[in-house]
Design goal:
The protein is α/β, with parallel strands linked by helices and 793 residues long. It contains 27 helices and 24 strands. The strands form six sheets. It has a seven-stranded mixed sheet with strand order 18-19-17-16-20-23-24. A hairpin with a 6-residue loop joins β10 and β11. α7 packs parallel to α9 and α24 crosses α27. The longest helix is centred in the N-terminal third of the chain and has 53 residues.
């Protein structure tokens, strides 16, 4: 139950003149009020709900209608005690009373005179108190009183001028008041100050001091009103400025229209509307584009924000949301294109043709992610162009080498200055269609450190299930990448994260044989270099022996980059002579090659070594293709220790120990005294010590070198071998066989020993390699020794 001031606002009526000799009874019922301090001359409504308070009102109405109003110290107190009520209050008269439907009553009271509580006479059913007269202390000083009265009236006038609400009738009454105490009571009751401050003024006995405190409150109120007025004026100024600019702009538009000049801004907005319609965006994207265009219409054309929105709209309207290349799915034509562009690479071509055939049969199939893995210079990147040409699609290449920032894939958010979409969306825009062939080059060289992990961002891009709704951070709307044919390239698979590798179909591309290099040089490299160096085919003629001399004597690589580089060097030398005035046709021979390129860099194996004791030829795999390596072994008096050099890894060192253990076990079979292993120290060395080497595949090569040293039998230099050896003499399978056998062919090897379990890999070898290389499968080391060791003459 409570007493409240209706809507916390006072209803102030015209102040009535009270008789100075009004009789205040010695005892009055007490009505505690919660959130307002009642002053003399003040008229206000009160809602009464507590039973004790209703009883006090009824008692007052049954008598002379006078009641004592005192403010509670704590407004939240429901049942206040004597100590919870302020002792100084106001005697008021109840003017009207109204009963409400919710059993509360509403009374209209008017303050009559200050009074204080002498003592509490009763508590039940309502408070009743002995009223003591409030003695006011008047100080002398008519001049001070007059000055204070004028000052307070001026302050009140200033407050009203600054917007303080005050009834006009009340202002007229205040102008006629000459009593400081009465003036203070009337003003403070209309200021709306805090309850504690109002109670302090009510309890002040000196009228002049009371008026001074009211003056202080008026000063504070005027300061607040002045700040409010300044804020309102500033806001109004901004609004007026914007309105003025708007009207001026509209006037300028009307003037231009009359002059027959077009409004550039309006034209630009209409162009955007037309472009959005023409782009045929998905529903969600179109909604976002329309929303941004609507924002742009409300912006000042020169503002920074409008520039950001324009750039964003430009990206949206220029992306090929519904524009696709018409596919050519003629398998015979595609095969012809691939064969014209690339010599060899039959496995890769077959896989691409399989995909095209399946695409022709099933139009809505998800495009696979092809990963071409092979050494540098074998044509991985150029294959992407051929695939795009064969399919009739646009081709875009995107290099991933050294990329460290995930935002380069997904884009930057538009909150950043200079934000742009990621490289994927940029490539799609460059292609101009939503189904290009997108070549992601060097995927094995992605960076991964504290600055980010772009390989993780690629997971969504390269997943045919997820990339339907790929969201670039800059665009903020999904773009369908499922129609894009992604082709990735890598030199080797190991650095590619497993999750990323799982999303791709890996196609291994081996190196080329000398015969393949010769044909590629004749068909592609020589014509291209002649053209690039400003010559003609009549002016320069490369003979087959000259090209083979460059291949065998100056390049030992899986790819073709160095070969093309040396052909280009020869063409430049010829071009210089033509520029100097030599008007003749040049026929390039082996002697001409050595004249232009200098001495031969790689010697034939016949010049490199003879059949020697303790030197065996092995085959190794490297990230840039297969290689031939030589294992050398020697012995010297000692205690049977084994030394291994050549910057070998732990696995290779363990293989050497396994090889030695097995040779010691079979020594007698080859006429070797087992005691010799205790009398000599053994040193195994693999040349090219600056190059790290590891892996178990040199096991049988090291065993052959050790056996040759102790049996004093030379090793056939034309035999190369690869395979892991166990301490029981078994030959285990190895990896990279295709690259190793191609390397053997390049080095003139005639016979290759491979593990029996690797026979299945021979099927992938080119026919010319199978014909020129005798491949023997072995299961045990005895077969290796039988084919590799020669008898002494």
């Amino acid at each position: 139950m409570s007493e409240e001031n209706e809507n916390n606002e006072q209803e102030v009526n015209e102040v009535e003149q009270f008789e100075t000799d009004i009789h205040i009874p010695e005892e009055l019922p007490l009505l505690p009020v919660r959130d307002i301090v009642v002053f003399p001359y003040m008229v206000l409504p009160l809602f009464v709900g507590r039973e004790s308070s209703i009883s006090a009102v009824n008692e007052a109405l049954s008598g002379d209608r006078l009641i004592f109003l005192a403010c509670q110290k704590d407004p939240q107190q429901e049942e206040p005690d004597e100590e919870d009520i302020n002792t100084v209050g106001t005697v008021a008269v109840i003017l009207r009373m109204l009963k409400l439907p919710d059993e509360r009553i509403k009374i209209l009271v008017q303050g009559v005179k200050r009074a204080s509580i002498g003592e509490f006479l009763q508590r039940e059913p309502n408070f009743k108190v002995a009223v003591a007269e409030f003695l006011e202390e008047y100080k002398d000083g008519e001049l001070e009183s007059e000055a204070l009265l004028r000052h307070v009236k001026e302050q009140l006038s200033n407050a009203v001028n600054l917007g303080k609400p005050m009834l006009p009738d009340l202002l007229a009454v205040i102008e006629t008041i000459d009593d400081p105490g009465k003036l203070a009571d009337i003003i403070v009751s209309n200021l709306g100050i805090k309850m504690e401050e109002a109670q302090e003024i009510l309890e002040e006995s000196d009228p002049l001091e009371r008026l001074k405190k009211v003056s202080e409150f008026l000063t504070r109120e005027i300061s607040i009103l002045e700040v409010q007025q300044k804020i309102m004026n500033d806001a109004r100024g901004e609004i007026d400025k914007s309105q003025k600019e708007y009207f001026l702009r509209e006037q300028l538009k009307a003037i231009k229209k009359e002059l027959g000049e077009e409004d550039d801004i309006q034209v630009e907005l209409e162009e955007y509307q037309a472009k959005i319609k023409k782009a045929k965006m998905p529903k969600k994207v179109k909604e976002e584009a329309d929303k941004q265009l609507k924002r742009l219409t409300k912006m000042h054309p020169d503002s920074a924000e409008s520039t950001v929105v324009r750039t964003y709209l430009d990206w949206l309207v220029e992306l090929p949301w519904s524009k696709s290349s018409k596919e050519k799915l003629e398998i015979k034509e595609a095969k012809k294109v691939l064969n014209n562009d690339h010599y060899g690479l039959e496995e890769v071509k077959e896989r691409i043709l399989d995909f095209l055939a399946l695409r022709k049969l099933k139009k809505d199939m998800k495009s696979p992610i092809l990963c071409l893995v092979g050494p540098p210079g074998v044509g991985k990147t150029s294959l992407g162009k051929s695939v795009a040409s064969a399919m009739g699609r646009e081709y875009v290449r995107m290099s991933l080498g050294g990329m460290r920032d995930e935002a380069e894939i997904r884009g930057h958010r538009r909150t950043y200055i200079g934000a742009m979409p990621g490289k994927i969306i940029q490539s799609i825009k460059t292609a101009g269609t939503n189904n290009p062939v997108l070549m992601l080059d060097e995927i094995d060289k992605l960076g991964h450190d504290f600055r980010g992990d772009p390989s993780s961002a690629l997971l969504e891009v390269l997943d045919p299930v997820q990339n339907v709704n790929f969201v670039d951070h800059y665009l903020g709307v999904p773009f369908d990448l499922s129609k894009v044919l992604f082709i990735t390239t890598a030199n080797y698979l190991d650095p590619i994260p497993a999750a990323l590798k799982d999303r791709m179909e890996v196609i291994q591309i081996p190196g080329y044989t000398e015969e393949e290099k010769l044909k590629i040089a004749e068909k592609y490299l020589v014509p291209r270099q002649i053209d690039e160096n400003g010559l003609s085919e009549e002016r320069v003629n490369f003979t087959k022996p000259s090209l083979m001399h460059i291949i065998e004597g100056y390049t030992r690589e899986s790819g073709l980059r160095n070969l093309e580089r040396y052909v280009g060097t020869v063409c430049r030398k010829v071009g210089r002579q033509v520029a100097e005035g030599k008007d003749k046709n040049f026929r390039i021979t082996e002697k001409t090659v050595e004249k232009f390129l200098g001495p031969v860099k790689y010697l034939d194996d016949d010049e490199l070594q003879d059949n020697e004791i303790g030197i065996a030829t092995g085959l190794a795999w490297t990230p840039v293709g297969g290689e031939v390596l030589f294992v050398e072994c020697t012995r010297y008096p000692g205690k049977g220790n084994l030394t291994v050099t050549g910057q070998l890894g732990d696995v290779m060192k363990e293989s050497s120990k396994a090889a030695l253990t097995y040779i010691r076990n079979i020594a007698e079979k080859y006429g070797i005294d087992p005691e010799e292993f205790s009398k000599y120290d053994i040193h195994l060395h693999v040349p090219a010590g600056a190059i790290p080497k590891d892996g178990p595949s040199a096991g049988i090569t090291m065993a052959t070198a050790i056996l040759s040293t102790f049996a004093k039998k030379p090793v056939n230099k034309s035999v190369a071998m690869t395979g892991e050896i166990t301490i029981t003499g078994k030959v285990l399978p190895i990896g990279g066989l295709k690259e190793k056998l191609l390397a053997a062919k390049r080095h003139g090897i005639t016979k290759a020993l491979i593990p029996k379990k690797n026979e299945k890999d021979i099927a992938n070898l080119p026919q010319n390699v199978k014909k020129s290389l005798e491949i023997i499968s072995v299961e045990r080391f005895e077969q290796v020794a039988e084919n590799a060791l020669l008898d002494n003459d």
